[in-house]
Amino acid sequence: MKTLLVTLILCSTASAKDRSVPAYQNAIFQETHAESVRMNCDGSSVYGSSTTTCHDAETLVYTVKAGETVYTLIPYGTWPHHESLWKQPAGAAVAVWNDGKHVHVRTGAKESQYDIIGESAQDATR
Question: What predicted TM-score, i.e. pTM, was given to this entire model?
Fold first, then answer.
């Protein structure tokens, strides 16, 4: 019984260490622009016909510089114009955390997730 209890304690301690705490870093919001995209072009109807609701749309693209890394981002999982970078002025201070799948951007009390569509390292002399 004591062995089982010790094993459970060790396992729960090990799993607690696996949980990563978000490590936000200071960043500067650079700019917003819109890009044209084609939406819903890979769908098909219930009966297998090729008619789709393919249409042109625009998506907002944001650029944020964190240290020497510049992220090009599009909103993920938010309603349009409700993301944390919406209407932020260029040069605004923000906090970012790259979880390996998305970039989380915090502006004051508001936080949103973004898909990374570009990531580049900038030369420190620029």
Answer: 0.71
